[in-house]
Design goal:
The complex is a heterodimer of chains A (379) and B (95). Chain A is of the alpha/beta class and 379 residues long. Helices cover 38% and strands 18% of the residues of chain A. Chain A has 14 helices and eleven strands. By secondary structure, chain B is mainly beta. Chain B has a five-stranded antiparallel sheet, with no helix packed on it. In chain B, strand 2 and strand 3 form a beta hairpin. Chain B is globular, with a radius of gyration of 14 Å. The mean pLDDT of chain B is 93. Classes of the chains: A alpha/beta (379), B mainly beta (95).
């Protein structure tokens, strides 16, 4: 069995006093302490990170994490799959355990983004897109805006329908002290926010964030190992948005989700809560549809109706999601796991879902070229 | 930063949609441009035929419309940057 022994998340936000190294150290030590495991039992370290080389001039993060944590000589390397780096690192930890190559894997997701200008960060993030998209002057918000426009045409939605994603996720973030924006927002504020790439406005977009999260993934049985990683599946699609079969869904999400449900032996209706990749509001709408939580073309209606609120039939993004908890890209997939484990342990305090037993994380890289779905079960 | 060799190598791909015609299927106005671009500009996704699409900047002042028939035209793309290399590629305008 592959289980989650320990988890930790740093505060997310614009953390002027924290370096990439400081964030990695805090998340790594926090996860080890939470797992109540002897440090020497960690036999593999995986660091999920996308932009360390570009924005910080710091690569070789696996060995660096080992040095910082007093785990020199431990196998360690960086895992990169754009914004899906964290989810993929969890998958790779499970693979190493299942292959018999490791028993206790420390996964750290970390990103330091706020030292650079918005233009520099936008360009760095476009490293996850295609050359043609970069030469067109597109940004990631621009790529999702292109999808949003097609979605609007097909399902008779409009930009005001998107606002309820931000309202829900900010409401959830107001209950999460680790969130970058732990406060609710009014509909009027969201609707009046400035345009970034039409039709998407500021409150449709996840922010630039510093932060880290850690987890100890274990193949050992024991009383601390009560949360099982019941499924972990990755799927890919074209990096070029122009090469996709459909512009109103992420096929990689659908494939990874279907394979994960099959591996876990469950149906979407059995999921009690989920953390989905809401890098932009339209992304959460497509995610709840592609994961089978509602029918295609109904995501925006179901979000507005409160289906995915705390207290709704399937709470989504109780951490605040990428929108309001923040999106330090390499850390996001690990943070999603931290939130679900915290909920399944019953430790989520004001945002706790009662009697939850099965949770799902959904982490996307690029405009949908990589998708990871992890399913967790409380034993 | 763009190097002369990178831009030279992209000659093989930058002009492949020159003169081609298609239909606008989506559009976005970029307000916050990435480094290497400036100002605000429209980017369109163009359907060039069955299962073939392209993205590129809009070459006219007037707003592009979904369903508009368009043609690929030669234009300077992006900023010149420090190396001084001027890169050309295809933008789209109303046919």
């Amino acid at each position: 069995m592959v289980g989650i022994k320990g988890v930790y998340q740093t505060k997310f936000g614009e953390l002027w006093d924290k370096s990439l190294m400081g964030l990695m150290l805090e998340a790594g030590e926090g996860a080890i302490n939470n797992a109540k495991i002897e440090r020497k039992k960690i036999d593999l370290i995986l660091v999920a990170n996308m932009l360390g080389g570009v924005l910080e001039g710091q690569n070789h993060l696996g060995a660096l994490a080992g040095e910082l944590l007093g785990l020199k000589n431990t196998p360690a390397f960086r895992v990169e799959a754009a914004c899906a780096s964290g989810g993929v690192a969890i998958n790779q930890a499970a693979m190493a355990i299942k292959a018999g190559q490791a028993k206790n894997v420390l996964v750290i997701g970390a990103e330091k983004m706020t030292d650079k200008s918005n233009g520099e960060v936008a360009l760095a993030l476009m490293g996850a897109a295609s050359e043609a998209e970069r030469l067109a002057g597109l940004t990631f918000v621009g790529l999702y805006a292109l999808m949003a426009r097609v979605y609007f045409e097909k399902f008779k939605a409009n930009k005001d329908d998107l606002a309820y994603v931000a309202i829900k996720n900010h409401k959830h973030a107001s209950l999460n002290p680790k969130a970058q924006f732990p406060f609710p927002v009014l509909l009027e504020t969201v609707l009046k926010s400035s345009c970034v790439a039409s039709p998407l406005h500021l409150f449709d977009c996840s922010p630039i964030t510093d932060g880290a999260a850690g987890a100890v993934i274990s193949g050992e049985d024991g009383k601390e190992n009560k949360i099982k990683l019941a499924a972990s599946q990755i799927a890919t699609d074209s990096i070029n948005l122009t090469e996709r079969e459909s512009l109103v869904e992420l096929k990689a999400t659908k494939i990874a989700g279907q394979k994960a449900y099959q591996e876990a032996g469950i149906k979407p209706e059995e999921i009690d809560l989920a953390e989905v990749h809401d890098c932009f509001s339209i992304a959460e709408i497509m995610a709840v549809e592609d994961l089978g939580f509602c029918r295609k073309g109904e995501g925006f209606k179901r979000i507005k109706a409160g289906d995915f609120d705390l207290g709704g039939r399937l709470p989504v993004n109780l951490s605040g999601g990428l929108k309001a908890c923040g999106h330090p890209v390499g850390a996001t997939g690990v943070k999603q796991l931290v939130e679900i484990v915290t909920q399944l342990r019953g430790e989520a305090e004001k945002r706790q879902v009662k009697n939850c037993r099965i949770g799902l994380t959904h982490n996307v890289g690029g405009s949908g070229a990589t998708a990871v779905v992890n399913i967790l079960k409380k034993l | 930063m763009k190097s002369a060799t990178q831009v030279w190598r992209r000659q093989k791909t930058n002009y492949q949609n020159l003169g081609k015609t298609g239909v606008v299927v989506s559009k976005t106005r970029i307000i916050e441009a990435p480094m290497g671009f400036s100002g605000q500009y429209w980017v369109v996704m163009v359907e060039l035929g069955k299962n073939k699409r392209a993205v590129g900047q809009w070459a006219s002042e007037a707003e592009p419309k979904i369903g508009m028939n368009v043609v690929g035209v030669l234009r300077k793309i992006g900023e010149t940057e420090k190396a001084g290399v001027i890169e050309y590629g295809v933008k789209w305008k109303k046919q």
